[in-house]
Amino acid sequence: MNTHLSTALDLANRFVPALPLRAGKVPFGNCSACRDNACGGRPNMKTPGPCECPRPCHAWAAATTDPDVITGPTWSTAWKQAAAVAYHPGGIGLTVVDLDHADAVAWARHTLPATRTVPTTRGEHWIYRGAMSSVNAVRDGVDIKSTMSYARWLGPGTGTMTNLPDTVRALVVKEPSPVRSVAVPSAAGGGECRHRTPAYLERGIAMAEQQITEAASAVHATVYRTFLAVLSAHGRCGCLTDAHAARLFAAAQVRGESPRHCVDAWSNARTALGM
Question: In whole angstroms, what is the distance from residue 11 CA to residue 85 CA?
């Protein structure tokens, strides 16, 4: 059996959601309907969050513990071409602090509580028990991989896994900037929210935060498009609050946006939607 396929099945047997990676640590396009996000899922944000395609899709959302999916036709070619296996840390309540070079490792040894470690090509993965938001480049050579992210599987590692400390959580928090209050219109006539469950809204906000924090370029445009998508999906039912807006503003400010630009982008998105 293919080595990577065997590893994925072993992970699934231990309830660790796995997926194949191409060379360059890039996930496969898992089905023709969703290749290049033709289904409307991330990153074009027509619908925030994983799409409703019946097949596994969209990188971390494709990670699975179902052996029938892992060995099924969707990934039959992928395993033959796979260069590595990845897993979804947040899916099993874990956080990976990805240390990309020796200086980052030295910083972690001086700053963070000891936990299980796994050697990587250039540095180490430090694995903690507990999930959090995933954010890249929280400092030089340090990425956080947990919810809605994937990490390469490089073995179980050594050492005793410890609980996720506040020191790691604090890495994703920028020094607070003022976030102006944003008025969100309530549902017309006080009707029932069509989303029916807070989980749908929470997933949409979390995916929007990730969309902003992972923007490699055109941050201004990404922030505006993300605000537009969130308001389009959630802005008219009365569920979207100032706290949700503040989370999105904070994510944008971590990427270097000013509070003023956040307010302007939010207002422009509302105007575009006639709100």
Answer: 10
